[in-house]
Amino acid sequence: MPSKAYLPFLVPEIKLLIISQLDEYSVSSIIATCKSFYELYKTHKSLINYEVALSILGDHLPLAIAFYAADHAQWKAQFPLPPCDYLVEKSHWFGRKYFDRKYLDRVEKLPIDHTDLTLPMIAEMASFYSLVKKWAVNYIDDQGIDFNTLTAGEARRVINAIYHIEVTRELFPFFQDYDGKPLNVPLDTLFHYLSPWEHQILINIVDFYEKVLQRIYDRATGTGPVYGLGAYLAEFGLRGLDKLRLGSPVPPALLNLRIGDANWPLRHEIWCVGYCDGGSFLRPFNGDLSWRIPKIDHILAHFPRDDDGPCALWFLRLHEDKRNLPHCIITRDGDRQWWDRSRIEALLPGVVPRVEELQEEALRGDLYDASMYTDPDEVDFPREIGY
């Protein structure tokens, strides 16, 4: 980079290129100390802010914005709960604005206008992104895999899932229990703006978080496994988890957790309550939500795939009782759900069919039996959301 003495004399195009490559703190510094850069920033503020945010957050910029919006939402985390219909309406609004695939899969289109990006906002998003990236690495390391060996698609899936956890937890840390309504309808509504294979990754990461919490809790109390540690995650999220260290004093908020449902109204499971296997993404048969058609064209159209590996693994597990497959691929813990097809093939060549083949096979079989999950007032999410 040229010395500071020459910076004011550079042509505007070069100045714009330089300032767009800086981080948010350096931009703040240079516009505060150099008048020509201040004038340049004032003229091209939205473009510079966008380029700075993109250079820091890359493909994760849309979800970083989604978490920022959730973190600053005025309607979140209210108790006593507002009416169910109000929260469902808010879930739809948030899902359509921040989880829409035309934003999440294309960073040149954002869920907000470029003029809404500010340097303080970018600094806040960058700080949280460093925490997300740290725990993505921790999660992959726990599986005995070097994070640096992940493809761009695999790394994106893991990081995105951590953002999904934090967005949904930030907005809905409480049970949403209403008379005459299935449990947690607003939360389930928002979760159905994600794909079923994304949901599987999310569940597995939460299990990893709880394993870390259990280890710290055991060290502090000497007790065995306890049910309900997820309530700590529901209240404090990734920031709270990151503050905990083995051997360090355990905060009262964790030590004082009561077992199981006694932590009400905080949720002890911080993912979608119904249909953990993703069956609620299937369309009902003749309007009967207890039976689902094993056809996923509508899901594939709504959730584009950069690789068919995660989708195939999800659909395979949905019909695992109909196939004689190696146990290492049929795992309820979903720790392979983020894998690309190439990684799956390296472990089990030719074992996992393509999604199109799986769907053809499923359609020749029976309907999907969802009766054990279905509440009499269950929501038809494919119709409700529009896929």
What does this structure look like?
The protein is an all-alpha fold and 387 residues long. It contains 18 helices and 3 strands. It has helices at 12-20, 24-33, 35-43, 45-57, 61-71, 84-98, 101-104, 119-142, 152-171, 185-191, 196-221, 230-242, 252-255, 297-302, 309-318, 341-347, 355-363, 381-385, and strands spanning 284-285, 288-292, 368-369. The chain has a 3-stranded antiparallel β-sheet with strand order 1-2-3, with no helix packed on it. Helix 5 packs parallel to helix 9 and helix 6 runs parallel beside helix 10. The termini are far apart.
Topology record:
Layout: H1 12-20, H2 24-33, H3 35-43, H4 45-57, H5 61-71, H6 84-98, H7 101-104, H8 119-142, H9 152-171, H10 185-191, H11 196-221, H12 230-242, H13 252-255, E1 284-285, E2 288-292, H14 297-302, H15 309-318, H16 341-347, H17 355-363, E3 368-369, H18 381-385
Antiparallel strand pairs: 1-2, 2-3
Helix pairs in contact: 2-3, 2-8, 4-8, 5-8, 5-9, 6-10, 8-9, 9-11, 11-15
| Major sheet characteristics | 3 strands, antiparallel
Quaternary structure type = single chain
Helical fraction equals: 40-55%
Radius of gyration, in Å, reads: 23 Å
Number of strands: 3
The share of residues in extended strands comes to under 5%
Residue-averaged pLDDT: 83
Estimated structural class: mainly alpha
**H/E series:** HHHHHHHHHHHHHEEHHHHEH
- The strand line-up of the biggest sheet is 1-2-3
* Uncertain stretches of 5 or more adjacent residues: none
User: If helices are DSSP runs of H or I spanning 4 or more residues, what is the number of helices?
Assistant: 18
